Request: fold
Amino acid sequence: MPDFLAASPPSLSMLWESADPSEALARRFRFDSPTAAVSWLSEVIAQHWGRTLDSCERLVISSGNMMAWITVGDRRMIAKWSMHAPVFTRLAAIARLTRWLDQRGLPVSPPQPAQDGSLQLEVDGVSLGLQNVVPGDLLDVSDVTQVRAAGEMLATLHTALAAYPSVVPTAEPPRSGTQLVGNDFRSANILWAGGGISAILDLEEARYERRVDDLAKAAAYLGTRYHDWKPTPPDARDSFVAAYQAVHPLPEDQLDEARAIIAEHVAGWPH
Reply:
């Protein structure tokens, strides 16, 4: 067991579920304590990345995924692993996509390759990735500057994803009129620092869809984080869509359709 665990075991929590985290840790991940989980992670990082895990601040469970905020040498990193074997191939594809976006200058946190070159490692029955922590705060939709930057960034992301040369395995394959989109562009997955967007996080929901649908969904859900979801305020939605249009405009008929889809999302919100 790493020495730091005896003095400072990590916190354990659920990202959004109301389940008991200790019970979820044991039932879903087969660890009897946070200390056991970090001890296992320390061994995996040493064996496959050749590096020493120096500390672990917290563990967070999200469905069948575990996230660990750790320090490795002089780097703050996040280790994330999944127990759900049917998604392992897709997770590897998302890791390759994220690295490709990073190579083209998009603000993402690319996976850090293991010693064998793996971007997403399959080990001990899980699929695990390691990435650097990107400094920043979650996007604030009350700040029009941030909202406009988010609209411009979604347009830039759509342009890049349309050019991605590989196919990402999804429930529905590409079809006419669709392209690869992130499908989860919202405050919980967008970091702001230094006067700009510092990172787009978690592309694991990527799918093939029309741009107009992804833009409308993003506009409606832009302000959502993990709890107490509310629709994005109308002024922020308008600023977001206008900023998108300035970079990668939709035809007028699709822009009208986007507004109608946004209205449907908002109307369907629990009141």
Summary: The longest strand covers residues 53-62.
